[in-house]
Amino acid sequence: MVLITGETGTGKELVAKTLHYASNRSDKPFIVLNCSAIPETIFESEIFGIEKGIATGVDKRIGKIEQAHEGAIFLDEIGDMPLTSQTKILRVIEDRILDRVGGRKPIPVDIRIVAATNKDLKKAIKNGLFREDLFYRLNVVNLVIPPLRERKNDIVLLAKFFLDQSRH
């Protein structure tokens, strides 16, 4: 488990992709889920999937975790994950199984989880907004990405990269 922390715009997703594509799972899926972009009412069906018939007109849908099987899932802005889903993602981490919404049969999964946030999760824990046990499960390796203003040497590299891109 890797937890990437840093301000918005520091390149946390780029670091996550680099970790995945430099790993022994590089030929497997890399699935991105932005936890702050999905309404809480449908979050669980997006991440865990949903069984057909759970509600009128609902078809079976494979969730992001199952899509990432044998690969990696990048949980961006994990500090915005609903508390009820935090409990369920903890089960996926600990037991390597998931339950689709409305499912009756646990589904085994083999995934690597990389999470990122711009929030102070220790403060969120104190405020009851983030589970402490999930924090410690995710924070096995913590990569702190400093803002660009503290990485002035990177500005030249980025400028050269964008200049080269504009020439093609």
Radius of gyration: 18 Å
Taking strands numbered 1, 2, ... along the chain, how are they ordered across the largest sheet? 2-5-8-1-9
Tell me the series of helices and strands, N- to C-terminal: EHEHEEHEHEEEHHEH
Q: DSSP strand (E) fraction?
A: 15-25%
Mean pLDDT: 92
Low-confidence stretches: none
Give the name of the CATH architecture.
3-Layer(aba) Sandwich
CATH homologous group name: P-loop containing nucleotide triphosphate hydrolases
Produce a short descriptive summary.
With about 170 residues, the protein is an alpha/beta fold. Helices cover about 40% and strands about 20% of the residues. It has a single domain, classed as 3-Layer(aba) Sandwich (Rossmann fold).
Relevant terms:
single chain; 168 residues; alpha/beta; Rossmann fold; five-stranded parallel sheet; 7 helices
Report on the architecture of this protein.
- The protein has 168 residues and is an alpha/beta fold.
- It has one domain: P-loop containing nucleotide triphosphate hydrolases (Rossmann fold).
- Helices cover 39% and strands 19% of the residues.
- It is built from seven helices and nine strands, in the order βαβαββαβαβββααβα.
- It has helices spanning 12-21, 40-48, 64-67, 83-95, 121-126, 132-138, 152-167; strands at 2-5, 30-34, 49-50, 61-62, 72-76, 97-98, 107-108, 112-117, 141-144.
- A five-stranded parallel beta sheet has the order 2-5-8-1-9. It has a two-stranded antiparallel ribbon with strand order 3-4.
- A hairpin with an 8-residue loop joins strand 6 and strand 7 (107-108).
- The longest helix has 16 residues, at 152-167.
- It is globular, with a radius of gyration of 18 Å.
- The mean pLDDT is 92.
